Amino acid sequence: MRITLFQFVNTWALLVWLIAISVSAQCRSDEGDGDEGMTEVRVGDAWTDPRNPVAQLWDGKRLDLWSLRPPEPTPIPIVLDSQWASNPIDCFVLAKLQTLGLKPSDPADRKTLIRRATLDLTGLLPSPEEVVAFQEDESPVAYEALIDRLLSSPQYGLRWARHWLDVVRYADSNGFERDEFRSTMWRYRDYVVNSMNADLPYDQFVREQIAGDEMASSELSDRRRELLWTASGFLRLGPLDTTKSKFDTEEAARDEWMVDLTNTTGSAFLGQTLACCRCHDHKTDPLLQADHYRLRAFFAGIEEDNERVVDSKEVESEITRHNTAIDERLKPLQIAYEKALKPGRDRLTARTLSTFPAEIVNLLKQPSDARDKATHEKLAPYVQKLDFYDEDIAALLTADENPTYESARQKVESIEQQKREFTTVYCVKERQTEIPPTHILEGGVFTDRREQVQTGIFSLLDPGPIAIDARDVGGGTGRRSALARWIASTKNPWSARVMANRLWHHHFGRGIVATPDDFGYSGAPPTHPELLDWLAVEFVNSGWSIKHMHRLIMLSATYRQSSQVVPSSSRLDPNNRWLARQNLRRMDAETLRDCILQVAGILERSQGGSPRWPEVPESVLKAQPGIYENSGRLQGYYTDPERQTYVRSILLVRKRSVPLPFLSVFNLSDASGTCGRREVTINAPQALSLLNNPISIRAASCFAERLTLLRPSDLAEQWNEAFWLALGRPAEPQEQAQMKQLFQALCRQLSQSDNGPSHPSDAADIADPYPINASLERMSLAELCRALLNSNEFIFIE
Amino acid sequence: MPTPTSSPLRHPFCFPGTRRSFIQKATAGIGGLALATLLNHPAYADATQDDSLPLDPIQLDPIQPLRPRPTHFPAQVDRMIFLFQYGSPSQVDTFDYKPELQKREGQRLPESYYANPKLKHTLSYGSELMASPFGWKQHGQNGLWVSELFPHVAKHSDDLCVVRSMISESNNHAPASLNMNTGVLVEGKPSLGSWLTYGLGSVNQNLPGYVVLYNIGPYGGPANFTNGFLQSSFSGMHFRDQGPPVLDLIPPSAFKRTQRQTIDLIQQLNRNHQATRPGHSELDGRIASYELAYRMQAEAMSMGDLASETKETMEMYGLEDKETAEYGRMCLLSRRLVESGVRVVQLFNGLASPKDGWDAHTILEENHRFNAKRTDKPIAGLLRDLKQRGLLDRTLVVWCGEFGRTPMWDSGSGRIRSDAGRNHNPLGFSIWMAGGGIEGGRTIGATDPFGLFAEEAPYRVRDLHATILHAFGLDANQLYFTNSGRQERLIGVADSANVISGLFRS
């Protein structure tokens, strides 16, 4: 009964929609282009103006590419079986199914639905209580209420920020030889999480990332400016070779940065493969080589800003005052410290001088300002050798001298520790001097400059330079603000479509365009082009509300279908491109780890902050000498206490050269470029990892412990509870019988004393997974838990 | 947070293309009846083709992506051991004998060199020539020059072909390592081993197709041996030379005794689950993956069991000697792996110390003696062992660093002559290859009289890559994968490469 009512409400809404659409279509022709006033004697777009250079490419034929046309407010198809359709999405899908002779599937059962929706929106499992409540909820809007509840959960942001971080190649380190930790990059990650949770309009989200620093005008509140600077951390997310100055390769490194920004901007926001036109005109799309450089020119003025202080003026001056006062207190202590160190310094100096040639020692006796340039150069290596580390000096102090030194050192340290640090973020600043011109580079080689280009959007739309207004920006040239305004708008045919498709991709496991980062000729054509257009228009009209789109997609009957394969449909559509059912999807790496921790009852609900550093096997750290040879957080790897690392995986440190084994094996994105679609493979190393990784082992034993606390008395009840927690359902009688059989087999096995040959396991240094003298019940329970966490029912989203 | 109300009354898109679409719109008509027209629009016709993802020549079996695949043309070899010498050994102290350099010790590099802009960086670190401190001798029937650093390898000189004219694109470790291992200077591209296993699959389905060995890995870290945009099955899997060779291969002892029962339970749960969900190949795939994992566990464990080798074999690899044991174990493990059908084994020099490998900016003599001593006998043992087992004919052995070193001593940042070393030199360096099809006992290409830059028959890294693919029967131009709209190849999207000429026996 309630379904019928639901249907009714939606049919009515559909009708209103339809009327509105026809009205809007008639009104539109009067509107005209908003920017008409700006175009003077410019060359027009490639469709209308033969002088446009792109009109010459491919004889103009590629201009028919579907994605170059603006999304149109497509009329909603009228379909016969309106009983099935619950919103316009379904009309598009159903119309296509009907033309192909396919039938949509029934809705999934409620248990499946709440599990699917909860995993999709929060990346976690519904609790057994939530499953039962939803199953028993007789309200006609029970499902809508569920979606609304999930959309307002703070876990939503942690889930969907992860998808965006893939798109913008987020990592917490520089990569390359040293792979230094970017100690405040996480503030950008938190910005994304919070933006998602607040449903920050997507157009604003885009503008802030591309040009946040320019938008941070001094009239804004401190909090707002902090956010804007943080957002522009987007421009700093790519890999960076910090040895560039040492090896005279600054120019090359800057070129790589510019390439990275141009390519990422193209793929992340616009679905355009600008990497292809770094060296030549695009091989398949109507894009010029110049287009790569016109876009690059928007970034030509930026420089790294690694420590932008984002504290309010008051806090900033308070910290400065505080630290100056500490410096004052330190002065006498430092003098005492130097004095205590002096005997050691004298000894080390004498010892070192004795290894130098006599000539050098004599020269060193001259006062340093009396030396000529040649002498300075000659002495430089020796002077450097006389610059000692304090630890080496202290090693030469006698037992009598040492206590004085130790106490002086401790005093200095304890006072120094009282210093406060500014809150800083990674962002960019604009060059204060003249911005260097951008040239097209022959073959993409940065030393082979050809003609100069101006900032400009894709030539096919407008081959002229873009209008830049520096007056309306808080700092900088306004270049990136102009770019950001164009990207975050309907003046290009891509932005809204690309994002709508990204959202669809994560709800169905496959986008309407199956290549979410490539909307060009070599990408996949859309399966439902009219639907994609309709979604894009709807997205813009909703004020670029991402949550509106989730709601729309998830309330559709298309989304709610069962994932069961229907043989008659699968013969016609083996890959389910036309969506006669929902897809079966494997959990991604983070979801899997998070759900395992959740089921084990050890997931800490932290929302952000400095990343946590989980333990990584030594052999993984050793893969990168720059990590392994350095202790400390900046360049090395510093493991947090185990307990502190049981947070959502998005909060774990992402060192470019230390892939976390468990996540990597389940197809983590690699943070070197935009990754809108992760590969999904199924292989034996995954099985080994899920069986034997420390995370699985720890989780299985905690899960078992949790069960014994929840259901202390009865083994069968514990099994039942385990099924509820992991799979959202009770154990079937047949499964209870299988459990019992297996339990007995396990007990027999465990009671045999022979352990076989012993090898250290990678999970061995986890303190006993359970007490060594634990009962057979407890040990076998942990095994059963491990099996559940490895099961297909757990890892697949139906 | 409430979502904004949707108003479909406004057409939000206004940019140049719009006017045109208005015209189309007018002809298409408005309302539901337009659907049929839209669905049949020629621009959308592609969407009705069978699969919407671009097709590549290689279509992978989703359950067994390592299943063997045919070569493009007959191959010389079907497996490879790549001995990467990280930090970079000096060519003028190993395989590129320069009598002129030996004569001109302490002299300044001739002025003519300063005109070459490519030498700018190299020269900025000093221009005083330093003779090799090592003795040189000709070896084998063909009189190959090898310095005293490699007495054992020198015995195999009739099997080695030395290319003395290699060029790298970077003078810095991490980018140059990435260049040598993935073809480009930045992270994110598939490595040589990944391309080979992608192209050819592997012989043994119970072991990974591409294995890497190291104690300490190369500069740039795992980006040197990852799969990039290729499927993760082609990523280099690290095998340890002690303990369980693969990460997470076995459970902790508390769980070990019941492992088979647990896997049986998992499979039982999975079959229950699958019974009511027919038609999903992913479910079958995962069931199969647990059986494969069980077999891999057994096979990988036995791979790591070096104790099963004879005493003579262990002696041959230098396992009894503390100095050579570490590298020897890795060489022996390499042989065991290729013998069992692993396609590519890459051995990163990977000694626990000194930390910088061959990167001798100072104390060249000590550094090179140290590194050579630890690797010479194991490498010679590997060559001999491969040969006596009949494996050398089918195996390509490659020895190279990321670049070479300057014939001048490195006088940069406070260094003194008495403990001098050499700076990085990407402009001319030596590598050697041995094994299937390789014409042994000869050299290819030449550097200038001091060994600074490749003068005769220079070869870039991508030429080396094309050559290695060629040895495996693959055409570097034809081995590609479409990623983000580009047909990516190991030798670059738009570049071409030359197979090193004269390397293979004709």
Description:
Chain A contains 33 helices and 6 strands. Chain A has 798 residues and is mainly alpha-helical. A two-stranded antiparallel ribbon of chain A has the order 1-2. In chain A, strands 3-4 form a two-stranded antiparallel sheet. In chain A, strands 5-6 form a two-stranded antiparallel ribbon. In chain A, helix 4 packs parallel to helix 6, helix 6 packs antiparallel against helix 21 and helix 19 packs across helix 20. The N terminus of chain A is likely disordered. In chain B, helix 9 packs antiparallel against helix 10. The N terminus of chain B is likely disordered. Chain B is built from 14 helices and 17 strands. Chain B starts with 16 loop residues before the first helix and ends in a 17-residue tail after the last strand. Chain B is globular. In chain B, the strands form 5 sheets. In chain B, strands 1, 4, 5, 6, 7, 8, 11, 12 and 15 form a 9-stranded mixed beta sheet that branches. A two-stranded antiparallel sheet of chain B has the order 2-3. Chain B is α/β, with parallel strands linked by helices. The chains are: A mainly alpha (798), B alpha/beta (506). Chains A and B meet through helix 1, helix 3, helix 11, helix 15 and helix 20 of A and helix 1, helix 2, helix 4, helix 6 and strand 6 of B.
Produce a short descriptive summary.
The complex is a heterodimer of chains A (798) and B (506). Chain A is mainly alpha-helical and 798 residues long. Chain A is built from 33 helices and 6 strands.
Helices, strands, pairings?
The complex is a heterodimer of chains A (798) and B (506).
Chain A: H1 2-28, H2 53-56, H3 88-99, H4 110-122, H5 128-136, H6 142-151, H7 154-167, H8 186-197, H9 202-215, H10 222-231, H11 250-270, H12 289-296, E1 302-309, H13 313-353, H14 358-365, H15 373-385, H16 390-394, H17 402-416, E2 424-430, E3 438-441, E4 449-453, H18 479-487, H19 495-508, H20 529-541, H21 546-555, H22 557-560, H23 567-572, E5 585-586, H24 589-600, H25 618-621, H26 625-628, H27 661-665, H28 684-692, H29 694-710, H30 715-727, H31 733-751, H32 776-790, H33 792-795, E6 796-797
Antiparallel strand pairs in A: 1-2, 3-4, 5-6
Chain B: H1 17-28, H2 34-39, E1 79-84, H3 99-103, H4 120-124, E2 136-139, E3 144-147, H5 151-154, E4 161-167, H6 173-182, H7 192-200, E5 210-213, E6 237-238, H8 253-256, H9 259-275, H10 281-303, H11 311-316, H12 322-339, E7 344-348, H13 364-388, E8 395-400, E9 404-409, E10 422-425, E11 429-435, E12 442-444, E13 446-447, E14 454-456, E15 459-460, H14 461-471, E16 480-483, E17 486-489
